[in-house]
Task: structure prediction
Amino acid sequence: MEGLSSYSEAFYKYLMDMNSVAAASVIKELKETMSYLQIVDEIIAPVFERIGDEWEIGALSLSQVYMSSRICENLFGEYFVDSGINYRKSPKMGIAVIDDYHLLGKRIVQMILKSNGYLVSDYGTQNPDSLVEFVINENVEILLISTLMLPSALRIKEVTKKLKEKREDIYIAVGGAPFRFDPDLWIEVGADAYGNSASDALKIVSEKVGVEK
Amino acid sequence: MTSMERVLTALSHKEPDRVPLFLLLSLHGAKELCLSIKDYFSRAENVVKGQLRLREKFQNDCLSSFFYAPVEIEAWGGEVVFRDDGPPNSGEPFIKKIDDIEKLTAPSVMDCPTLVRVLETTRLLKKEVKDEVPIIGVVISPFSIPVMQLGFEKYLDLMHDNKDMFSLLMQKNESFAVEWANAQLHAGATAICYFDPVSSTSIIPRELYLKTGMPIAEKTISKIKGPTATHFASGRCLSIIDDVALTGTLAIGVSCDEDMAALKASAREKLTLIGNLNGIEMRKWTDAEVFVKEIIEKGGPGGGFILSDNHGEIPFQVSDDVLFSISDAAMRWGQYPLSWVNQKI
Result:
């Protein structure tokens, strides 16, 4: 295969076909001439950006985003973590869901971030008070919150208010169905950013951490 | 026309006297009766009172005996978590390991007190309105309920990686769904809302729907002894409308994520469209008229259309002012033959 664009196209196709073996072969081949970060920045991140864009317009389904993320998370584990290459240096990051057990959105974001070399601590399902406590105790600097239900999304306001009183520098990004259907909701709840798709979380984190895309 | 006549005419793809209005208000009855959500659902009489009051208040063309989605999870032995500001939610998924599916037994409707309470609600509503107002019962599709039984991630893994266990779970879920739907029809429900968000193309691609959600819907709906409407809970469906029509359902709940004009063009004479007001943004509307007019203009002509929200449940946070605004606009702009639309053309 010649040229990075053909690798990128092939990688995208194999993810859509859910062909983890073929996707792995692309990474294996690229590893011979490229560093881990180069592969992530040139291939994996742009492919996820494309996946995110296509999901937003309805050209892809959530299950396709999930399966793609799952394959990439496994590839990352196999080819990078196991070979001793560490995660990127970044501020402490955490991700949580407020008040319910619909965890898929959080999980997809985690997988995409991990596949791109970012370590994110998973705080599971929390209520606003317990989440604030976790964030303060763990010195989290970038907090990602995912919600499915409108009442839970509205409760994020309690989190942002309490956290910003204690830590002015905390950066809070939100995502999930309520934010998709009400584009101003993230402002209302006091967040610093909002992701329309799981891939947006990668853009937000990369920009915040200062990695050029 | 009575509400029943109006809705039946619309379902026949003819124009009734006005566009039917389905304000799906599961929770607002609690506000109406000044009760907590948990207390509201603790007695059938509360829900009946709430539904009847709301219908009169907002000129609603239906009554709903629906309580909350995890009412079925209760029957399976799962947890329900109540809150004061929104719909009760399912707790931690109760199927912890995939192998547990083999030991799972479909519950019997009459063994679950909350399901019995829903049936009692249905009976009481029927006694009140007889055949004048459609009563909508809800069943969660066998294909969608595993999100609460297993958790979404584990369910997607099961669907893709373990076809045998997936099929077994579908069989068990189907037998419960059919029993539950038919029990509600027997108690007096006019139609069943077949709640199937996982079949939406927002969640799975069409190719997978054709192998999973669609045959499951066909099989389940064929055993339900009454009419059904399929709802995708804000999920997209435009590219599968022709497929959904083949499942035997009569109507489809559609998302504000898709254009009503495109949906209507695809569904005309095949499926009645129910939707698609944006329930999330709705709470901030000062005047619903512009949104109601746009949707009626696109979906109303020719019948086959019922004005409603796009999720199947209007959020608790939506005020009475907004609901009045929607109702008033529906009355004002929904009178057939929709001359104002024809004049624009």
